[in-house]
Automatic annotation (TrEMBL):
This is Nuclear export mediator factor NEMF. GO terms for cellular component: cytoplasm; nucleus; RQC complex. InterPro entries: NFACT-C, NFACT_RNA-bd, RQC_Subunit_NEMF. Gene3D superfamilies: ibrinogen binding protein from staphylococcus aureus domain (2.30.310.10). It comes from Aquatica leii. GO terms for biological process: rescue of stalled ribosome; ribosome-associated ubiquitin-dependent protein catabolic process. NCBIfam families: RqcH_arch.
Length: 955
């Protein structure tokens, strides 16, 4: 299969790509470490140019999966090429080197793309001084491809032949018997396909060999003429755009039904800018341009590899079915043959009864006289030599099994077969070599062969009867196998390999992506490429501990639970797992991690300097879990929003984006005091709003709230909506228990002013803060209240507010002396968001960084660990994470240090999930599509697997 450009392909591609000249660079992305995309734009016209080191260059309409975090090489090209105009695009000679110039004069920069050997991409300035190189190396003793070196402009060669003498010199370097095509390929820069094409035009086949079918003196002029034709073809494609052709291979699909029409699969094998002579008899697809053909070839390459693998599996399944059918037919044939042979042997023994009895008696007599087996053998040989009629029919003694072999003939068929070849005895009914049991008479031996014949007949009948069932069962199994192969193939096609899967990874309980290096090289790589200043770096002072990165795209504080989970990961992927040692990890901000030591000492690969304070985490338990995340179709993602989020409770701090919020909670026994304090909150808001200008919004989180409530009441501060007033004399704090106001009649006039301000305060509320009051035993009432007011709109709310305004102010409650003694003030302080300086790459916009962050969030939001029955699932991804992270997952098992092998543990886990009764057919298909090595490679070492009813499932 052809996977890279030759010189002729480059000529055609450059001719077509020249229409990009004049377009400006909009942005640059990297697909992998060898493949880059340059997005170009000219007014409304947009194009994407793809460059792959060592392989290809073409425009693409395919949506290639770009890396979330651009590589250093991409960032360097962005810095120098962004907004620059493409001024020229040329091929260096006829070599596989392309020079792309962006900008002009002293502001010009060059991208040199090398498509030979291991390939390279080089960024230079206008003086051809190398600014960055994808693959630094040295050629020979002097030529170095490194930063600040000058790129050799004479690097390209022009491999052409201009005279017959030059061609003669080339041919004389070859050896006798070398194919002419092979000699020319290494000397001329036309590419193998074009050379073969012109050779066929001049009647030189692949069998033309130097000194045998090709003679220099006789055929050199004709060969030179062929090379001249190749030159003409190359010159012609420099002036006009070439068509594109995909050469295909036709393969028949497997089918269990012989009467069904045959189906074929066409796989792309090669791409060419013209239809060469050697390909005219093969199936092909034609495209308007060479660029379209190349883009189609590479964009479908991975899919076709999966199809070909599926085709091979289908063929193996059908072949297995054919083998079952052949084996069944073979068994029936053998049973028929054995019946005929046993019948023949029985008849021959019967017809030679006297002879067989005499032979048995002779051997039994010798054994009775206690003769040795060797003496008996010699006795039989001597008797045979003397012409004894019994001895000459004894061919072999098998005294160890109490048998002798006799060659018997049919006495009624004549003596014509007596001297026939013993190798063909089984083919003749008139003679055969038969084993005779010395313990039975001739008739008894004949009866035993008849019994064998009858037994074989019964076996044949049973085989025939079971033939239909066996074949039907095999066909059913084969059809199921074909269906499974098709399903798994479709899953593979939909399966997207994410950038983080090459590392250890998991998604935390609060929806943060956590990655860790598998070795020191990956530890170095993820810190340098993927860690940003706002990310969290987690590590442990244990040998072999991974560098763990918590990706934090939105920059908010990372909750403690996620920090602990990342710490568990750092500990488990270290020697602590094998040693079963419990220790703790620490975390720091990304900006605290550096590769440079203040003392100037050398830091080995994967080692980093941590500046300032380390934040140590609690000791981590050596407990991991194996679970599965399912990628849902995009339209089903919203159903799973909030599955992984920060949960506010007594043990977890609550985070908001604003400054500190301090809530003082005072325990009171009188419900009226609680009502008073609620009104105090509202009055306090009135005073604050009155002091501000009319257009300034009151900031609720900046207010210190003092709430008195009865014993047993709990207050939580979370980051969503605020106070809502629903009924005429009821205040709702969030979605919790309603509080009924009891305003006294004597203060009615005063209160008429107050509720208007209440509405103003509520309209000026901060949308990021919500105060909820919950009381034990009130869940049912809260549910009814939610149901009652779920459809309330703004107009209805204002109407209810007007009703509330007429209720007046509440009565001043009596002071309870006892309450002062039982006050228990609790302060809940929410830490401010630390201001972490984010070091942005050069020349990168804020919009692009926000877009990258959103891509990361959207990417992990598409995964769910607890799919719904009606979800459309695309594929399953195995994940190894701290076990408490997988609590809500549908499929999970616990892993602790043990003695079990990783591969066996992975296989056992999948079998457990497949046998679960709650597993849907689609989930089973997705689980089967996961390879065991995908799971095993992420396990930290030898493990012990724990799951409910594990022993029963194993049995």
């Amino acid at each position: 299969m052809k996977t890279r450009f030759n010189s002729f392909d480059i000529v055609c591609s450059v001719t077509e790509l020249k229409r990009l000249i004049g377009m400006r660079v909009n942005n640059i992305y990297d697909i992998d470490n060898k493949t880059y995309l340059i997005r170009l734009q000219r007014s409304e016209e947009k194009s994407v140019l793809l460059l792959e080191s060592g392989s290809r260059i073409h425009m693409t309409n395919f949506e290639w999966p770009k890396n979330v975090a651009p590589s250093g090489f991409s960032m360097k090209m962005r810095k120098h090429l962004k907004n620059k105009r493409l001024e020229s695009l040329t091929q260096v000679g006829l070599d596989r080197i392309i020079d792309l110039q962006f900008g002009s004069g002293e502001a010009a920069y060059h991208i040199i793309l090398e498509l030979f050997d291991r390939g390279n991409i080089i960024l230079t300035d206008y003086n051809m001084i190398i600014l960055n190189v994808l693959r630094p190396h040295t050629e020979g003793e002097k030529v170095r491809f490194a930063v600040r070196e000058k790129y050799p402009q004479s690097r390209g060669r022009d491999g052409t032949v201009t005279s017959v003498e030059e061609l003669r010199t080339i041919l004389e370097k070859g050896q006798i018997g070398d194919p002419i095509k092979k000699i020319l390929i290494f000397q001329l820069d036309f590419g193998a396909s074009l050379i073969e094409h012109v050779l066929l035009m001049h009647n030189f086949t692949n069998a033309s060999k130097l000194g045998k079918t090709f003679h220099i003196d006789k055929d050199i002029n004709e060969l030179f003429s062929a090379i001249q034709d190749a030159n003409l073809i190359v010159e012609s494609v420099k002036n006009e755009t070439s068509k594109g052709y995909l050469i295909q291979k036709k393969e028949e699909r497997a089918n269990t039904d012989p009467n069904a029409p045959k189906e074929y699969f066409y796989s792309n094998q090669e791409f060419h800018p013209m239809l060469f002579n050697q390909h005219k008899s093969l199936p092909y697809q034609e495209y308007d341009t060479f660029n379209l053909a190349v883009d189609e070839f590479f964009s479908t390459l991975e899919g076709q590899k999966i199809e070909l693998k599926m085709l091979q599996q289908e063929k193996e399944a059908v072949k297995k079915l054919d083998n079952i059918k052949k084996d069944h037919d073979h068994r029936l044939t053998q049973l028929e043959i054995s019946q005929e042979v046993d019948k023949q042997k029985a008849e021959l023994i019967t017809r030679n009864q006297e002879l067989v009895d005499n032979a048995i008696l002779a051997i039994q007599s010798a054994l009775a006289n206690q003769m040795s087996w060797s003496d008996i053998d010699n006795l039989v040989k001597d008797a045979t030599a003397k012409g004894d009629p019994v001895a000459k029919h004894i061919k072999q003694l098998k005294l160890d099994t109490n048998h002798i072999s006799m060659y018997l003939t049919d006495p009624f068929a004549g003596e014509e077969n007596a001297n026939s070849d013993e190798e063909d005895d089984s083919k003749h009914l008139s003679s055969c070599t038969i084993d005779i049991d010395l313990g039975f008479s001739a008739f008894a031996n004949a009866r035993s062969y008849y019994d064998k014949k009858r037994h074989a007949a019964k076996k044949q009948q049973k085989t025939i009867e079971s033939h239909g069932k066996a074949i039907k069962s095999a066909e059913k199994k084969t059809k199921q196998t074909l269906k499974d192969v098709q399903t798994i193939t479709n899953i593979y096609k939909a399966r997207k390999v994410y950038w983080f899967e090459k590392f250890y990874w998991f998604i935390s309980s609060e929806n943060f992506l956590v990655i860790a290096g598998r070795d020191q090289q990956q530890n170095e790589f993820i810190v340098k490429r993927y860690m940003k200043a706002k990310d969290i770096y987690v590590h442990a002072d244990v040998h072999g501990a991974s560098s763990v990165i918590i990706k934090n795209p939105d920059g908010l504080p990372v909750p403690p639970k996620t920090l602990n989970e990342a710490g568990t990961m750092a500990i488990c992927y270290s020697v602590a797992w094998e040693a079963k040692v419990v220790t703790n990890a620490y975390w720091v901000y990304g900006e605290q991690v550096s590769k440079s030591a203040p003392t100037g000492e050398y830091l080995t690969t994967g080692s980093f300097m941590i500046r300032d304070k380390k934040n140590f985490l609690p000791p981590s338990q050596l407990s991991l879990g194996l679970g599965f995340l399912f990628r849902v179709e995009d339209s089903y993602i919203d159903k799973h929003n909030g599955e992984r989020k920060i949960v506010g409770n007594d043990d977890t701090e609550n985070y908001v984006e604003n400054d500190e919020v301090e809530v003082k909670i005072e325990e009171e026994s009188d419900n009226e005091d609680k009502q008073k304090e609620i009104l105090d909150v509202i009055q306090e808001q009135q005073q604050q709003s009155g002091s501000d200008s009319d257009d300034e919004v009151s900031k609720f989180p900046d207010t210190q709230i003092k709430i008195n409530h009865v014993e047993g009441t709990k207050i939580n501060v979370v980051t969503e909506s605020v106070i809502s007033l629903v009924e005429s004399d009821v205040i709702y704090l969030g979605d919790s228990k309603p509080i009924r106001l009891k305003p006294p009649a004597q203060k009615k006039e005063k209160s008429l002013q107050q509720p208007k301000n209440i509405e103003k305060v509520l309209e000026q509320k901060d949308e990021n803060v919500k105060i909820t009051i919950s009381k034990r035993g009130q869940k049912g009432k809260l549910k009814k209240i939610k149901e009652k007011y779920k459809d309330q709109d703004e107009e209805e709310r204002k109407l209810r507010m007007d009703i509330l305004n007429s209720a007046g102010a509440p009565k001043e409650p009596k002071k309870n002396k006892k309450s002062k003694d039982v006050q228990a003030i609790k302060n809940i302080k929410v830490p401010r968001n630390p201001k972490i300086p984010v070091q942005k790459p050069e020349n990168e916009d804020d919009d692009e960084e926000e877009q990258t962050a959103q891509v990361e969030i959207d990417m992990i939001n598409a995964f769910t660990g607890k799919p719904f029955f009606d979800d459309e699932l695309l594929f399953a991804v195995p994940v190894i994470a701290p076990y408490n992270t997988l609590t809500s997952y549908k499929f999970k098992v616990k892993l602790t240090p043990g003695t079990g092998k990783r591969g066996k543990a992975a296989k056992t886990a999948i079998n457990i999930f497949l046998k679960d009764r709650s597993t849907t057919p689609r989930e089973k298909d997705l689980l089967r599509a996961v390879k065991e090595e995908q799971i095993a490679r992420n396990l930290p070492g030898k493990v012990k697997l724990s799951a409910p009813k594990l022993q029963i499932l194993k049995k």
